[in-house]
Structures are given as C-alpha cells and as structure tokens.
Amino acid sequence: MSYVLGIDLGTSSLKGLLMNRSGEVVAQASGDYPLLHPAPGFSEQDPQEWVTACEQVFVQLKEQVADFTANLAGISISGQMHSLVLLDEKDEVLRPAILWNDVRTTDQCREITDRFGDELLALTKNIALEGFTLPKILWVQEEEPAIWNQSRKILLPKDYLGFWLTGTKHMDYSDAAGTLLLDVAAGQWAQPVLDEFAIPTDYLPELIDSAGEIGELRPELKERFGFSQTVKIFAGGADNACAAVGAGILDDSIGMASIGTSGVFLSLENAADKGYGGKLHLFNHAAVGKYYAMGVTLAAGHSLSWFKETFAPTQDFTELLAEVGQIPAGSGGLLFTPYIVGERTPHVDSQIRGSFIGMDTTHTLTHFARAVLEGITFSLKDSQVLMEEVAQKSFKKIVSVGGGAKNSDWLQIQADIFNAEIVTLTAEQGPGLGAAMLAAVGLGWFTDLQAAGEVFVSYQKGAKPKPENVAKYAKLYQAYRKVYPTTKEICHELAAFR
Fold first, then answer.
1. For residues 79 and 60, what is the distance between their CA atoms, to the nearest angstrom?
2. Is pLDDT at 275 greater than 80 in this prediction?
C-alpha cells in the first residue's frame, strides 16, 4: 500500500493528512505553534516552528501507521499565503516571517499604489493590500535596511518547508500569484515590478507547477525518521488554491463558499484577464493553466463568534442556532453587516464597521443570530454578484465548506441567498486534501487533478433554494447593498473615538 502525505501549513498549526491510492484517509497528525506580536498590528512567526511541527507530524504518523516509513511515496504542501521569509547567503533565516495577517504596511501599500498602481494591477491582477508580500518587502527595505542588505532569497512558508525537506528552493504559481511579484498571465516573475522596487531577480526561487517535483526527501531526514525508500516532494500550492482542489473546484460553473474566521467566495477561471479591476483577487490555480477569482469577507465566522461571546457567552453554537430555522427569511426586518474589523470585498475599507439595522422590540436573541448568518452570507454574495456581472458566470452549484457547512439552517440560507444548490463535502479535509491530490498527480497515480478528484472528492446533499425565500432575499439584498455607502462616512468619523 502506497501513501501520499498532504501537509497544510496554516497560521496556527501544521496538519498532516495521510491518504492511500483509493482516496481514503489513513491517519492524521498535527503540531501547533504560536503567533508573535512584537508590536500592535504586527504578526510574525519563527519558521523553525514549522519545521518542528513537521517533525512532530512525522513522529505521530510513524506511531499511528506501521508501514508509514516503508510506503510513503510522496509529499506535497499547502501553505498560508503571502507571508515573507528572508534567507541570507548561507540560507539562514534572517528574521521572523511577516505573516499574511500583519497590517504594518499601510504606508507601503500607499507608496506602491502611487508609484506603480495601474501597471501593478495590469501585471499581477491585484491591487496593493497589507496582506501581500511586496509591501512587506518594502517595509523591510525601509525599516530594517541591514536585514535587507543581508537578504539573498525570498520564500513563502510552504516553500521554506519544501527547502527544509529537499534542499532546493522553488515556488509554485498559485502561491507566487499572492506576492504581487508575478506576471499572472505570463506565468513568470514580473520584471517591471522587480525593477521598480529594487528586488534582484535571483532573490526569487524557480517557478514550478503545483504538482511539479521539487526534489526528494533529504538523506539525513530519511535516516532520522527511518524512511526506507525514496520519498518524492512536490511543490504544492497556496492554501486557497489547495482548498479549492480539495473541494473539487475544477469547473467554472461551480463556486465555493468557505466560512472560517474570514470568508471566501471562490470560482475557477479559464483566463487571466476577467476585467475585475482589483475588485476581486485573481490568482493562478493549482490546476495547470487555470486561475481562480476570490472575494474575501474579513469577519465571516469571526462575526458569529463575536456575537456569541458578547451576547450568549454561556451557550455553545448548537444551542445558539438551534431555533434560527423557526425565524422567517429576513429575520423580521433585522439586517446585519459583518464589517466588524473592516472589509475587503467589494469594499476595501479598514475603517468601515458593522451594523444591526432595523432593530425593534419584537426581536429576540434568535432573530439577531439569524440576521448574523444572513449578513455573512450577503457579504459573500457580493463576490458572487461581481463574478456574475463582470464575467457573466452562472452558478448552479456551490460547495459550502467550513463553519457554514455545519448547520442545516445556514445551508438553507446560503441556498436561498445564492439562489443555487448547495452541496457539502462527504469528508471535509481542507487544504491538506488538495495537497495530497497534488502529490498523487505528481506521482503519476492520476493523469490530472480532475481524475484525482473523481477518487478523492465526494459530495453530499446540502440544500436547494426555495423560490419564496429567494424572492425575499433578492429584495433584502438590495437593502443590504445600501448600508455601506450610507454608513461609510459615519464609521470613518467614529474612527477617531476608537
């Protein structure tokens, strides 16, 4: 029995998913690590923590699966996007990685936009935001020049782990697309961007397809963990790209609504130029020659967690949501906007804040809870509508993953607001499953990801839209869209009091 290992290098933990050729999960393991916050708005991590967590995963899997070290054939990695890792000429880490959720680079984003905004969008298909890698590089250039002067290689988290596993340095296209340094359509480093911001081309690693082989497990690691055969390592992809692969988003008529702390509405694109103008992210997919468009709600599941912790701290989520299905669509005229930490899509606005609108004395805790679910879903619908209006897409089926897939009433709300059939994954394994599929394709077990998906990905029924609710929500969504322009000025004025 041969195995593939999909590694998901996340923000708070590294998870390993061991699977066989039949697409069955054989074992799972994980290792946690801390976030570092040396100053307000800073979010960093020591790359050695990722290595230590990976070692822990190897040890755990070896304990769980008797033939793990004898039959592991390949490894691939999904990684948190954008986070900056800098190496010196001896391949030593120069400073803690600056993570995707670090917001210190507002000034650098403004500088990038002023100097290179239109051309940046034309080449990279995205606008400068704090999460991306390029603003972090500029921050290091400006604030830590001694560190920049020692820098010789720029990597992302999964690529650093790949370097530790193999001794080689590569970056796949899906992760490279999130750096603001890639010419997305051409599939090569964007030389005009590098020239404008004084980034030597040889600081960047070799580009490779997500299922491309980057090397073999280093002999010293084979010996340390007892692997008796060659273990091939494959590049892997960005976490959202791998999550899309693991959800079977390999067809442009299928969307994905992912609700974690943040929320994502994502769909596959067959071409790089969709005319989104930076209103949606557009990245290279892990599938060769494909792309994906993505809108982000900054506080999706976070909005629900905040609501529960603030107004129902003694209840668990099951109890809080137990009766939301008894409240009619529209929550009795109560509307929630989930802008509690600012917003990303379609409003790039760090100062906007959330609202409950329409409150009256008839509203109960359950009304408010349902309104939160509806508001989160409306926010994701903003991205769906952009895709439909700009790219003339039509979604007949949407895969719901994350917290939104765990409650049947919320699934029905999604079906009614998105006006599409909602399905869920039979076994939701997240980005690690996509990484495992990339390893399986890289090994030649399957001809492509589509063929791998037929074995590794399966769906179960979620909900179908109810026409009467679809009509109600269509009207309520128009009211929702008026909230941002109506409250923007007020929220910006209130920022002075925070």
1. 20
2. no
- Classified as helix, coil or strand, 290 is coil
User: Rounded mean pLDDT of the chain?
Assistant: 95
> Hey, what are 325's tokens?
């299905």
Model's pTM, two decimal places?
0.92
Tens of pLDDT, residue by residue over 307-346, are 999 999 999 999 999 999 999 999 999 999 999 999 989 9
User: Both tokens of residue 403?
Assistant: 């917290």
Contacting residues for 382 by C-beta, under 8 A, at least 6 apart: 295, 345, 346, 481
> Rounded distance, CA 109 to CA 127, Å?
9
Length of the chain: 498
Residue in 172, 183, 209, 239 annotated catalytic: 239
Residue in this structure with the two tokens 């796949």, named with its chain if needed: 172
| pLDDT grade for 377, boundaries at 50, 70 and 90 | very high
Name the residue with tokens 């897939």: 405
CA distance 383 to 378: 9
Q: Are 94 and 151 in contact (CB under 8 A)?
A: yes
Strands 182-183 and 188-189: antiparallel
> Judging by beta carbons within 10 Å of its beta carbon (0-12, 13-18, 19+), is residue 270 exposed, middle or buried?
exposed
Q: Is 239 a catalytic residue?
A: yes
